[in-house]
Write a structure and sequence with these properties.
The complex is a heterotrimer of chains A (356), B (523) and C (313).
Chain A (H helix, E strand, L loop, with lengths): L1 H11 L6 H30 L4 H11 L2 H11 L5 H13 L13 H36 L4 H13 L4 H15 L23 H7 L3 H38 L2 H8 L4 H39 L4 H10 L3 H29 L1 H5 L1
Chain B lengths: L17 E3 L17 E6 L14 H10 L4 E3 L7 E3 L2 E5 L5 E6 L14 H13 L11 E7 L2 E6 L6 H4 L10 H6 L11 H6 L7 E7 L3 E6 L12 E6 L2 H10 L4 E2 L4 H6 L5 E7 L2 E7 L3 H4 L5 H10 L2 H8 L28 H11 L6 E6 L3 E2 L2 E2 H14 L4 E6 L1 H9 L5 E7 L16 H5 L8 H12 L5 H14 L3 E5 L2 E7 L5 E3 L12
Parallel strand pairs in B: 2-11, 2-12, 15-18, 15-19
Antiparallel strand pairs in B: 1-22, 3-4, 5-6, 6-8, 7-8, 9-10, 10-11, 12-21, 13-21, 14-19, 14-20, 16-17
Helix pairs in contact in B: 9-11, 15-16
Chain C lengths: L9 H6 L2 H5 L2 H16 L3 H18 L1 H4 L30 H37 L1 H16 L2 H12 L3 H28 L2 H8 L4 H37 L11 H9 L6 H26 L3 H10 L2
The chains are: A mainly alpha (356), B alpha+beta (523), C mainly alpha (313).
Chain lengths: 356, 523, 313
């Protein structure tokens, strides 16, 4: 909040502040506002859920005793007006307290700390795959514009974004694990493997850090199929986007000039065309990351991948309100931060954005 | 509350303990081969806590069975024979006083402390005082330490069920000293739950190594255990959906699967796995609300009896799999007080239609509630509901299905707002008095607005059953539950099968009515 | 999210004299509508998409005639593999999979189209209001849109469905609540461009009311991009609905539904036909909408196409 206040003050004296700095401050202000909005939405949403958290917390026996129920209501502050409850909630949030799960009594922050790296690992795996495959396919498609290769790639990328993730996940699991045994099964590691000592929470990275090659191979074997499934959608997305970006660049003067200078085609492609196309692509990667978190719910369900998505699903079906609020908040914040970074990249690269 | 989510599945073995020896081929050894001294078991978690005095779900009780010893046990898993555990017992003639004598004096907790009478008294009192879900087990019982070897349990009313109650893993004996040091009390202010989740305080064969309620619980051998050391020094219990369990057990990634449906078991390669199936102690039934405001037609006995006549029980049995059984009352067939299953009604569509005419049922759709995400012993409740809907339609009864996640569905049921639906009940202890909840005034009967005084005949039978002693109890309860079932308020559907699939890597194991799978005895 | 190339295939870009039309946005908007839409479907992708969609429409329309058996009747053996009688096998309750698949098209298609229509209308109206009035109104509406964007669709829909209870109606409400912002964004930016154009300013000077200028002068420019966006979005809506059903938060049984069938089939790997064919159905129908939408988008001018592409979530 303080940021946006200074931000407004600065606005009154525009000449003194560098436009780029001003742009950054405005974006920070908006992001904070949005995060606050997310807290309001999660809070309201969970209060609309027609269920009594007290019954879930106490269990049946204690819930039958009005005295204990009243005590619990008081202890949890549920007897307070909604607005007071909200500010208590907000106050706790600012101290990093996301509440305690009604079901398992484990602090939500702790559980999210456990499951978040799992989703991040899956997300990074998927993003890496999509960036590499998507960019190459997009580039190829653009360079061979209107040839059979181009049409094939475009058609495939459209099909890629049309497939229901959970179905592809199930079919993939059946074929590549159940029938062919090419990849690891459900979960992040074979059951008898011990997770590597936690540094980042990403099993692949941690096992490398600890020098446990067997664990690394195993974790990678488990990671590869869910990542591919999850990446299918973003590969389609990135292929299409990088194709159009490259096509935009090809027409520009400096590329024509480079070609005219007689530079080797490979140099032109990678040094000029690809570089120029990279900037808009970065922003799409950012956006895609948000969509991956969404896709992860269904993929994680099929692969028993104990990540944020599964945690959210369990929370939603057991009406575990603190869990739902916590996950909503975390994902909202991740999305907003990603967007903030994307905006910044845009701002740095494209001066017109700042002026607007 | 007593209709609950997947609850402890004590499997009743009519043939008592089944011990499977010597798997024929050793080729089942897992391809990873690295499993070594760990046994990997998989189940879809419904894990809230492993504090024994609070846990009340299947996952928690499976774990606590391996961690905690109990005052009494069931002899070789025979649920009709309570026998000595940590203590031996004696019941007074009027069934009001039970005397427990500490017998296993060499029993030690996982930190090496010996198990004393004080620990047992503290555990009983903590169970009673903290108002957790299983607190009702010792309702109306006063716990008294007599001397360093003897405890007296005095019940207000005759309590012949007590010996059948004490073996429950919810009444596990904890190390009083350590629990007290960690905020453990015997009243509502108890704060030891989190501590007990991470640091078990039992004297059983295992202790907790890591506890993660969302994904995995790891147990290691308790070096101070006074029994034979378990062959597998580590137990890994993973939270895995039934679908994944199928592939994991077949590929050797897991050694034990708890949740497979009969269809899934069908598909397994019988040479690669061992299958133990025992009648479960769960009952699945249809409930009908007796309040006309809420239930509409279901308040009419003729309508309810028409439902019972319209069901195609053979098809329902088919869904339960090979050893599923009919039920003539909510009480499992192997229990004392069960109505013999051959008295269960058969399908009679003509009778159903006549009864519907009598009831004046005009074909209005009745909301039919069930938990969409629940499976009882691998029996999918959502599919069962669809089958029931199709069967009743043939008699002209129209159901409109109202699925909801278990949590929401339970809320509505508790509030006694659901006209009709599927209920499930898992035995808390193998005694017919546990089924008093289905009798007017009982906690499940309240959910369908069935109060004492609505059926004076049944009230009389209930009073008689409670009073009955010794060999008279069985027939008295059977008469009570027969009359209760005849009202059609409960339409018992099926007693499912509890199936455990074990990989061939395990050469011998014990799976019986008391413990679905005994990790300590697997080899 | 579907982002496509703003580039046009050469046939469209050159032959219709787009440049001349683009000088006058009003003419362009109206004529584009008339001239190009049928043509768009003449591209190979558009044609294939339209053909698949047509087949599915016929299937949905004539489902009762096509389905050999009652989709609810549990008359057959359970888990029968595809054979002469049950060409796609039977499910866990002994129902004919083919009949169920065919009949499921009748719920999925109309529901998806309906939810997209609603969110297109809701989103465009809000976006138009934001873009036309600007300032405070704009800030509020667009910040709410940002907020909705900040939540993953399926998680938001999941919570809504869990709170309101499963069912087609609640699934539609959930999807509606999460899908309007993309329309709001596109409409807003198009309206903002149009608002400052000379002819609209001229209209205001002539005394047109805000509503009139929005409807008569600005709307025609917005319609075709919104139609494109909506076409692409039908696919997304089908996927989201299937996802909710997969998590048993969608269509209430016994009504046949593809997502629910996949969920049932996933627990029966050996009876692969239960999940495999409904998945193919979803895939083909979503592909059809994406092919058509993609071809339509290529007929828009590059700037608008980019707008449509970038804001689709």
């Amino acid at each position: 909040m303080s940021v946006s206040a200074t931000d407004q003050q600065k606005n009154l004296r525009p000449p003194k502040i560098h436009p780029l700095l001003r742009f950054i401050l405005v974006r920070i202000g908006i992001s904070i506002l949005l995060i606050w909005g997310v807290t309001v939405v999660t809070f309201l949403m969970t209060n609309l859920v027609p269920t009594d958290p007290v019954a879930a917390i106490l269990g049946d026996r204690a819930a039958a005793d009005p005295e204990i129920v009243a005590q619990t209501r008081e202890r949890l502050g549920l007897d307070q007006p909604l607005i007071v409850q909200y500010f208590t909630y907000l106050g706790n949030l600012l101290q990093g307290d996301l509440g305690v799960s009604n079901q398992t009594r484990v602090p939500v922050l702790e559980s999210i700390g456990q499951v978040f790296p799992a989703s991040i690992e899956l997300g990074i795996g998927a993003i890496l795959l999509s960036v590499i495959i998507g960019l190459l396919l997009g580039l190829l498609s653009a360079l061979k514009q209107n040839t059979i290769v181009d049409h094939a790639i475009r058609t495939l990328s459209l099909i890629g974004i049309s497939a229901p993730t959970f179905w592809i996940a199930a079919v993939g699991y059946f074929v590549f694990f159940f029938k062919l045994r090419l990849v690891g099964g459900a979960g992040r590691l074979d059951p008898w493997m011990t997770p590597p000592p936690r540094v980042t929470g990403l099993y692949t990275v941690d096992s490398l850090l600890a020098g446990q090659m067997a664990t690394f191979t195993n974790a990678l074997g488990h990671l590869i199929l869910p990542s591919c499934v999850l990446a299918l959608f973003t590969i389609g997305l990135l292929t299409r986007f990088s194709r159009s970006s490259v096509l935009d660049i090809i027409k520009l003067d400096y590329v024509t000039a480079a070609k005219a200078k007689g530079l080797a085609p490979r140099t032109v492609v990678f040094k000029y065309i690809f570089r120029g196309a990279l900037v808009p692509i970065i922003t799409v990667v950012g956006l895609a990351f948000g969509s991956l978190l969404s896709g992860a719910v269904l993929t994680e369900t099929v692969f028993a991948w104990n990540g944020l998505g599964q945690y959210a699903y369990r929370g939603a079906t057991t009406l575990d309100l603190p869990v739902i609020m916590g996950v909503g908040l975390v994902i909202g914040i991740v999305y907003i931060i990603v967007n903030f970074v994307v905006d910044l990249i845009y701002g740095f690269v494209d001066p017109r954005v700042r002026v607007r | 509350m007593k209709i609950r989510l997947p609850r402890r599945a004590l499997a009743i073995g009519s043939a008592l303990a089944l011990t499977f020896g010597l798997a024929a081929c050793s080729g089942g050894d897992s391809e990873g081969g690295g499993a070594g001294d760990a046994i990997v078991a998989e189940t879809a978690f419904n894990l809230k806590t492993i504090d024994p005095h609070r846990q009340f779900e299947f996952t928690g009780s499976t774990i606590d069975n391996a961690i905690y010893q109990t005052a009494l046990e069931f002899e070789d898993g025979d649920l009709t024979k309570p026998t000595d555990g940590l203590c031996s017992y004696e019941m007074s003639d009027n069934d009001k006083k039970m005397t427990l004598t500490l017998k296993q004096k060499d029993a030690k907790f996982s930190n090496g402390d010996p198990v004393t009478v004080d620990d047992i008294v503290f555990s009983f009192k903590r169970l009673q005082g903290i108002e957790g879900n299983p607190s009702f087990f010792l309702d109306g019982v006063t716990v008294k330490k007599v001397d360093d070897e003897t405890i007296e349990l005095i019940s207000k009313n005759p309590n012949p069920a007590l010996p059948y109650i004490l073996p429950n893993s919810s009444i596990g004996i904890v190390n009083a000293k350590v629990v007290k040091e960690n905020e453990g009390t015997t009243d509502e202010n108890d704060g030891a739950e989190q501590f007990l989740n991470q640091n078990s305080q039992g004297s059983g064969p295992y202790k907790v190594e890591t506890y993660d309620a969302d994904s995995k619980v790891v147990l290691t051998a308790n070096e101070h255990y006074n029994g034979p050391a378990p062959k597998f020094s580590k137990v890994v219990l993973r939270n895995v959906s039934a679908e994944t369990q199928v592939t994991d057990i077949q590929s050797g990634q897991a050694d034990v699967s708890f949740d497979l449906s009969s269809d899934q078991v069908e598909t397994l390669d019988k040479n690669a796995v061992q299958i133990s199936s025992l009648p479960s102690t769960r009952s699945i039934y249809i409930f009908n609300n007796t309040d006309e405001e809420i239930g509409g037609p279901t308040a009419d006995p003729n309508f309810r009896k028409a439902v019972a006549s319209a069901l195609d029980y053979e098809k329902i049995l088919d869904l339960a799999g090979e050893n599923g059984q009919r039920m003539a009352s909510p009480v499992p067939n192997e229990f004392n007080g069960a109505v013999p299953k051959d008295q269960a009604p058969d399908r009679d569509l003509d009778r159903a239609k006549k009864l519907l005419d009598k009831a004046g049922y005009d074909g209005e759709a009745v909301p039919f509630h069930y938990a969409s995400d629940q499976a009882v012993n691998g029996m999918d409740i959502a599919q069962l509901a669809q089958t029931i809907q199709a069967q009743l339609k043939e008699a002209g009864i129209k159901l409109s299905l109202k699925p909801a996640p278990s949590a929401t569905q339970l809320d509505g049921f508790r509030a006694a707002e659901q006209p009709m639906g599927i209920g499930t009940w898992g035995a808390d202890y193998p005694d017919p008095s546990n089924y008093n909840v289905f009798v007017p005034g009982g906690s499940v009967a309240e959910r369908v607005n069935w109060a004492e005084g609505d059926n004076p005949e049944i009230d009389k039978l209930a009073a008689a059953a409670t009073k009955a002693e010794g060999d008279d109890r069985g027939p008295a309860y059977a008469e009570l539950f027969q009359a209760t079932t005849e009202t059609g308020i409960w339409v018992p559907l099926v007693q499912p099968v509890s199936t455990v699939v074990v990989s061939n890597r395990i050469e011998s194991y014990v799976s019986n009515a008391d413990v679905t799978f005994d990790f300590a005895k697997a080899e | 999210m579907s982002i496509s190339s703003p580039k046009q295939p050469p046939t469209n870009a050159d032959s219709t004299g787009a440049e001349a039309l683009d000088r006058n946005p009003v003419d362009a908007g109206i004529k584009r509508w008339r001239l190009r839409f049928p043509k768009a479907l003449r591209t190979p992708l558009g044609f294939v998409g339209a053909a698949i969609l047509l087949i599915w429409l016929l299937v949905a329309l004539f489902a009762p005639l096509l389905a050999p058996f009652d989709p609810l009747a549990q008359n057959f053996g359970r888990l029968v593999a595809p054979d002469g009688q049950n060409i796609l096998g039977t499910d866990t309750l002994g129902r004919d999979v083919f009949s169920r698949i065919v009949v499921a098209a009748r719920t999925t298609l109309p529901a998806a189209v309906f939810v997209v229509l609603c969110s297109a209308v809701m989103g465009s109206v809000l976006g138009a209001i934001a873009g036309y009035f600007g300032r405070f109104v704009d800030e509020i509406i667009m910040r709410i849109a940002d907020l909705v964007f900040a939540f993953p669709t399926i998680i938001l829909a999941m919570v809504i469905a869990a709170a309101l209870g499963p069912g087609l109606k609640n699934a539609i409400i959930a999807i509606l609540l999460v899908s309007w912002p993309s329309y709001a964004r596109v409409t807003r930016s198009l309206v903002m461009t149009a608002r400052s154009s000379e002819y609209v300013i001229a209209g205001r000077l002539l005394g047109f009311s805000a509503g009139k200028s929005l409807l008569r002068e600005i709307a025609p420019n917005v319609v075709s991009p919104i139609v494109v966006l909506a076409t692409l979005d039908v696919g997304t809506a089908i996927l989201t609905m299937a996802g909710l059903s997969f998590l048993s938060l969608g269509v209430v049984p016994p009504t046949p539904d593809w997502g629910a069938m996949i969920s049932e089939g996933v627990s029966q790997f050996s009876a692969w036909w239960i999940a495999f064919f409904p998945g193919l159905c979803i895939l083909t129908i979503v592909v059809a909408f994406n092919f058509i939408g993609d071809s339509l988008r290529d007929t828009l001018d590059p700037h608008t196409a980019q707008e449509v592409g970038e804001t689709t979530k």
